[in-house]
Amino acid sequence: MIDPLDFVQNAGIRHGRIPMADLVRLHDLLFDKTGELIYQISGQLDKNAKPGLQLEVKGRIHLNCQRCLEKLACEIDLKTFLLLAKNETELQQVDEDDTIDAILATPDLDVVNLIEDEVILSLSISSRHAEGECSPLTLKSIEDNLIDKKKPAHPFAVLAALKKTN
Fold first, then answer.
1. Percent of the chain beyond pLDDT 70?
2. What pLDDT is attached to residue 139?
3. Which of 22, 53, 72, 139 has its Cα between 20 and 30 A from that of 130?
């Protein structure tokens, strides 16, 4: 936890590592929970002397491929500047400009939650391997399951079976 305005005023810098197991909101998107994210957050003033946080996150995570459901390695290399809004009104004014990312400067900002938010926002809506990189065996298995489910059972198949046994 940091007080972001105080952090900027003191030109604070914090860095560390976060195990993927600690990023609970990401778990549904992950193939496995191996690895970690390396981060650095620093308090700075932007070109207009407004307070903000410079955030850098790097790491490798394993997502679920939406096409073949196998492991998809994803490199995280995130660099962003988050302008600090002192109140809701200021935040709404800044949000009108799509070129600026801003957050509310709450006195007890959870750095891990902030990093998790930024990583989630940076991910693709539908993560999948590039064309032709999915496992052909997995795709064939998925395709076979879909085809089997599409074949409707003939309504009189049971009667025909009974007729043959009698």
1. 81
2. 46
3. 22
CA 29 to CA 59: how far, in whole Å? 15
Burial 107-130 (b: 16+ CB within 10 A, else e): eebebeebbbebbeeeeeeeebbe
Distance between CA 159 and CA 166 in Å, rounded? Answer: 11
Question: Which residue type does 162 have?
Answer: L
Distance CA 58, CA 147 (A): 41
pTM: 0.74
Q: Max Cα separation, the chain?
A: 91
Tens digit of each residue's pLDDT (9 = 90 or more) over 41-87? 999 998 889 999 999 999 999 998 888 888 999 999 999 999 999 88
103 vs 28: CA distance, rounded Å: 25
Do residues 82 and 57 touch, judged by C-beta distance below 8 A? no
